[in-house]
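Q: Please design a sequence for this.
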C-alpha cells in the first residue's frame, strides 16, 4: 500500500502544475499582504496594520488553497480515464479500493503541505511588509491565544473543510469521469455555499434539524472562536466540535459511496 501511495505521489509531484499552484499561493499571499499594506498605510507610508492581525487569519488566503486542492482532486482520477491509463492501473496487483484510497491520501498530503506553505508564507509576508510583531504575542479577541496558535487553529479548521471538498470532488470525478465537471461541482460547493446557507438560514428557523445539513458545516471556521452572540441569536448554530464531527461523518459517507461506485465502474470504454 505504501508503494502505491508513493507512486501516486510521484505522479502528482512530477506535474509542473502541482508546483505552480504552490508558487502561486506564495506569490498571492505576498501580493494580498502588499495590497493590505497599501490600503492601510498612513500618509507618510508607514504600515498601520500589525503583522499578527493579518497572519492570524492566514492572510485570508485559505479560499485559494482550497481552490487548488479541488483542481488536484478533480484531475487525479479523471485524468486516468481521459488518458486511458486507468486500465494499466487496474491490472497492477492492487484492488480498486486501494487505488482510490491512495489517490485520496495523496490529495490530503498535498493539502497538508499546501497548508504549511500558506502558514509560513503568511507569517513571513506579514512581518516583512506590515508592522512586525512576535508571533508569540497574544492576539486581542482570541481568548488569550498567541498568533501562532490562532493561525494553526484556522489552518486545522480549513483542513477539515478540505477533507470534505476532496471527498466530494473525488466522488464526482469517479462517478462521471469528467475533470471539468468535477472542478465545476467542487467550485460550486466552495464558492456557492454562502449563497445556499443564506437561503437555508431562513428555513432552519422553522426546521431546526436542517442545521445538520452539510452546507452549514462549511461555516466551521466561524466557530473556531466561540461566538456568544451567534449562540444566542442564530437558530442553526453549531459549535466547532459539532461541525467537525459532522464534516467527518459526511466525508466518511461520501467516501464509502465513492468506493462502491469506483468498484463497479466499467473501464472498458476508457
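A: Design:
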Amino acid at each position: 500500500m505504501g508503494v502505491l501511495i508513493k507512486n501516486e505521489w510521484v505522479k502528482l509531484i512530477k506535474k509542473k502544475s502541482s508546483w505552480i499552484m504552490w508558487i502561486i499561493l506564495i506569490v498571492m499571499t505576498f501580493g494580498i499582504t502588499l495590497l493590505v499594506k497599501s490600503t492601510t498605510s498612513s500618509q507618510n507610508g508607514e504600515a498601520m496594520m500589525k503583522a499578527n492581525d493579518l497572519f492570524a487569519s492566514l492572510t485570508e488566503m485559505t479560499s485559494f488553497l482550497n481552490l487548488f486542492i479541488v483542481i488536484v482532486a478533480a484531475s487525479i482520477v479523471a485524468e486516468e480515464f481521459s488518458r486511458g491509463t486507468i486500465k494499466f492501473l487496474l491490472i497492477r496487483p492492487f484492488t480498486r479500493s486501494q487505488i482510490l484510497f491512495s489517490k485520496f491520501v495523496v490529495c490530503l498530503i498535498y493539502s497538508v503541505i499546501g497548508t504549511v506553505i500558506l502558514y509560513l508564507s503568511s507569517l513571513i509576508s506579514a512581518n516583512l511588509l506590515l508592522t512586525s510583531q512576535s508571533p508569540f504575542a497574544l492576539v486581542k479577541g482570541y481568548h488569550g491565544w498567541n498568533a501562532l496558535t490562532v493561525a494553526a487553529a484556522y489552518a486545522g479548521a480549513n483542513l477539515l473543510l478540505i477533507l470534505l471538498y476532496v471527498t466530494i470532488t473525488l466522488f464526482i470525478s469517479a462517478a462521471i469521469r469528467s475533470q471539468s465537471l468535477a472542478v465545476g461541482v467542487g467550485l460550486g460547493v466552495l464558492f456557492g455555499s454562502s449563497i445556499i446557507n443564506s437561503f437555508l438560514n431562513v428555513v432552519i428557523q422553522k426546521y431546526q434539524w436542517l442545521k445538520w445539513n452539510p452546507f452549514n458545516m462549511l461555516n466551521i471556521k466561524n466557530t473556531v472562536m466561540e461566538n456568544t452572540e451567534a449562540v444566542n441569536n442564530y437558530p442553526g448554530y453549531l459549535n466547532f466540535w459539532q461541525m467537525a464531527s459532522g464534516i467527518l461523518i459526511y466525508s466518511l459517507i461520501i467516501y464509502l459511496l465513492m468506493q462502491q461506485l469506483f468498484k463497479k465502474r466499467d473501464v472498458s470504454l476508457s
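Q: Thanks. Anything notable?
A: The longest helix spans residues 96-129. The chain has one domain: 1-264.
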